[in-house]
Design a protein that fits this description.
Blueprint lengths: L1 E7 L1 H6 L5 E4 L7 E11 L1 H4 L2 H8 L12 E17 L4 E3 L4 E2 L1 H5 L8 E16 L6 E3 L3
Parallel strand pairs: 1-3
Antiparallel strand pairs: 1-8, 2-7, 3-4, 4-5, 4-7, 5-6
């Protein structure tokens, strides 16, 4: 299965549905099953922001409880759409979709980046320890 590694708290916020998009500076032609892996790194600056702490708290999570170094969810990657405009509080994708609110707050919507669109996110009952890699990588689940 293809796997995407993400830094915390972004990985948990994405898998918990606080944002419906993952943003990347690169596109992929791959579409299909995708596992979400949490790297061992935590973005402490982001994780200590009040807004992020509040979003995590809704799900009973704190910085100390964020899973790291493991596959935590699976989903279906449906599309990657380029960001064509960024207005500092909202963005527009090349298909005309307007990104705002938590989706904007929890992503990197610089012009030229890509919004990865997924469906059917399922958080695993038990995370799978795994060493991550850059880009999309393979893991036998």
């Amino acid at each position: 299965m293809k796997v995407l590694s993400m830094i915390q708290p972004w990985a948990s916020l994405f898998t918990l549905g606080e944002t419906q998009y993952e943003t990347r500076s690169w596109n992929t032609k791959y579409r299909g099953p995708l596992a979400i892996h949490t790297s061992k790194k935590i973005d402490k600056t982001a994780a200590n922001q009040d807004t992020i702490k509040a979003l995590l708290s809704k799900h009973g999570l704190t910085n100390d409880l964020l899973p790291t170094g493991s596959i935590i969810a699976v989903c279906m990657l449906k599309n990657c759409i380029k960001v064509t405009e960024n207005n500092q509080s909202w963005a527009i994708l090349e298909d005309g979709t307007i990104i705002s609110g938590n989706d904007y707050l929890l992503g990197d919507y610089r012009e030229g980046n890509y919004a990865w669109i997924v469906q059917n996110m399922k958080i695993l009952n038990q995370s799978i320890p795994a060493k991550g890699q850059l880009g999309l990588w393979e893991y036998d689940i």
